[in-house]
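Quick log. Single chain, no ligands specified.
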Amino acid sequence: MPGENLSRDEARERAALLSVDGYDVSLDLRSAVGDGDAEPRTFRSVTTIRFRCNEPGTSTFADLIAPSVTAVSLNGKDLDPSEVFDGSRIALEDLAADNELVVDARCAYSRTGEGMHRFVDPEDGEVYLYTQYEPADARRVFANFEQPDLKAPYRFEVRAPEGWTVWSNGAGELVDGVWRFAETKPISTYITCVVAGPYHYVTDSYSRTFEDGTKLEIPLGAMCRKGLAPHFDADDVFLVTKQGLDFFHDHFDYPYPFGKYDQAFVPEYNLGAMENPGLVTFREEYIFRGKVTQASYEARANVILHEMAHMWFGDLVTMEWWDDLWLKESFADFMGTFANVGATRFRDAWITFANRRKAWAYRADQLPSTHPITADIRDLEDAKLNFDGITYAKGASVLKQLVAYVGQDAFLEGARRYFKRNAYGNTRLGDLLSVLAETSGRDMTAWSASWLQTAGVNSLTPQVLLDTEGGRIAELAVLQEAAETHPELRPHRVAVGLYRRTPEGALERYARVETDVDGPRTVVAELAGSQAPDLVLVNDDDLTYCKIRFDETSLATLRAHLGALTDPLARALCWSALWNLTRDGLLPARDFVDLVLRFAGRESDIGVLQMLHAWADSALVHYAAPEWRETGGRLLAEGALRELRAAGAGSEHQLAWARFFASVASAGPDLALLKDLLDGTTAIEGLDVDQELRWAFLEPLAAHGVADERVLAAELARDDTASGKRHQVRCLAARPSAAVKAQAWAQVVESDALSNALVEATIAGFGRPSQRELTAPYAQLYFAAIERVWRERSIQIGMDVVRGLFPSYQDRAETLDATDAWLDAHREAAPALRRLVLEARDDLARALRAQECDATA
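-> predicted structure:
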């Protein structure tokens, strides 16, 4: 990996020197099929780059990662590949004012989801290809200048096996056995794309007539593997797509600029999705093989709209360097929810955002690796790790705050001007702030300094003083705090809500004030004289980004009456705040589990309920005192089974409780019930144990030694698909055996034979909280191996191994000491590797602090 890195300084120097006029890329993918599977299996890639040099006679380099280069020609002169190519760069010397570079290379198919990924479907033996490049893997497929600010038009042509279809960013046609694609608009390397294979393909179209009478026609397509075709609900994908296109045309006043709009759901995908213009790629898990809750459909719609927003924020206008990654990801994350609420059936998507996306941001913003939204990205390894909760969810939260600060109309008008001024170009922070200052009339400098250029999350706590009779508020203030490491106190536009219990027992809001909080203490004068509240909710309606705290009366009210809170967003905000208190070691984990057991059954929002299940499991596994875990596990299993039996037959709540019950089941009777549900000897009215739910039940059975290799093989025979294989691999690695753990470790750490998806599945099965003793020997092996893994494997696999195999379940002081010892002894290790270990260390230290809190409960 070190030889494949690119620094910001190198990129800036090259951008100052070069302008790229265009690429012609010819790929021969016919080698993707055929007998045998020798590695590395390669394909031919021929690239012609036309570019200008501002300083003739100087030198630079092109990027290419390939097993071999057959020929290199610069301005008609043949260069010796052995002299100019070092495995990741092609040296280019004595440049002319106008240049043409031709590179003929053998590039490798990928099994890690980076570059040209090759997947063989075990169900029917068909081969499927797709590309994934962000941030810098286009160089694994064709020679280029791999940085976002050297945009250019592209013309692709592809030779593929007979019977295949090929797609790229532009419209394509098959001419004399070659797929030829229309030239793209100027775009960055990382959003070019090729998808090829015998995909199942469905078409539709979108049309729009604008006020000036012009008409826009967009061909729509959606594709997946043939094996998933029976499950592919393309009509719903197209519905959301059309709703999104209408929404963004209404608000952006800039017609979709990239011609067609294909969406490919592809196997073994590392990301959620990628915004390649004209050809968006998604992980195929967004095609649901079994029954799922509406939360899954909402999440898919959010991702579709997130990627669509990128067509403007990111593709049309692109950040100059990865420092300003937020200019695309924060906006797309905000716009995904904004459009979901404004255009689709998912009108409560802001509740999911408040409960789920912000939880990701709060965690990331309290890690030692937290960073400002506008980050300091020194190189590509930094960039890869900054696709994180800060860049996405905190950035989106801050934009939500910005909309409250400048007003929605000013915000959207700023976006419109930004697109028109910078179309097909690259921007920095100042380019956006300048248009927002124009449209809002506000000075954006101070806002940017507080919100975009500093790290950390503030806590807001209400302080309530009552009059002498205790029936009215004498003064209500909001206290703002910040961590010592990130002491910035920010300006917040918040709503403060007052809640009281009604005679019928409901907990409802009776007063609300919107105000600006600034500094350590802000008095909310408008609420003086109001009736004394049972609950004060700071940041009601979720206008700002902060951790909500409670005064003693409010916390006592929630402990007793959380389920009586009638507003679903307010309830979600309270649950999130209670979870943050648990993570911060201020609320015992067993108290949070108790709240879930008492009130989660009354939760109407299915997305919030599923988040509560995940949090309750984490509370038990990581934050509960070790001596209470067995008791807590039994209580959660009993509660989950009770709610499962009480849920409406066939309801999504029933399904959610069934999955949660399976995840916490460990006692003999609970495992026996899962086995009986699988065998069909027992049934719960309305619960359809489909194939996906079967695997969910099998995993705990495998982890507790009830389902052996024979049972898992029989289940794979029943579900002999790519999805089934991933489930089986995870279950196999979950079995409680020292030999199983040794084999799983060797497959992931000592070998690169597994694909990225099977590496992920093996890691997930290897680490089981109920198997702490079995995995204890691997803590020392982990620290001995990670630097070698980081050096020898791709960055994606390196990240998966370093994060996934950290001995988090060995949650004791000795593991913390071992982590510190590794960090002390490896100060010169790759910064990105150290960051991952530091993050894991922080999670472990947080868990130990929370366990101390729980032990004193």
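The first helix runs from residue 8 to 17.
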